[in-house]
Design goal:
The chain is an alpha+beta fold and 107 residues long. 36% of the residues lie in helices and 29% in strands. InterPro entries: ABM_dom, Dimeric_a/b-barrel.
């Protein structure tokens, strides 16, 4: 994924907090959602999933053509159902939309 501050794309960073005992379940549910639903939605540009060492947090980073594309994906019946199931496994689940302010490529 090429990240650019001049892009009009929408960046979404979502954090999921859970116990180590449910981390694998949440990760598998997220992978299944990205594989079967999210990556096929109009405007989807790419994503990455990250897990912390303690297995108490998962962070997803996704890029969308526009904010409306991300919001439309969230409103689909299948994602509403999936998000309810994922949220039930988490202590907290928070998607936040961001604009890229600056980038620093490797030297």
């Amino acid at each position: 994924m090429q990240i650019s501050a001049t892009s009009d794309e929408q960046t979404v960073i979502s954090t999921f907090e859970m116990t180590p005992g449910t981390c694998t379940d949440v990760l598998e549910a997220l992978q299944d959602a990205y594989d079967k639903v999210i990556r096929h939605q109009p405007g989807f540009r790419g994503a990455a999933l990250h897990v912390n060492d303690a297995q108490t947090r998962i962070c997803t980073y996704s890029r969308w053509r526009a904010r409306a594309d991300f919001q439309a994906m969230l409103r689909t019946p299948e994602m509403r159902e999936r998000n309810r199931a994922i949220a039930a496994l988490c202590a907290r689940f928070e998607p936040v939309m961001y604009d890229v302010a600056a980038t620093y490529p490797a030297q």
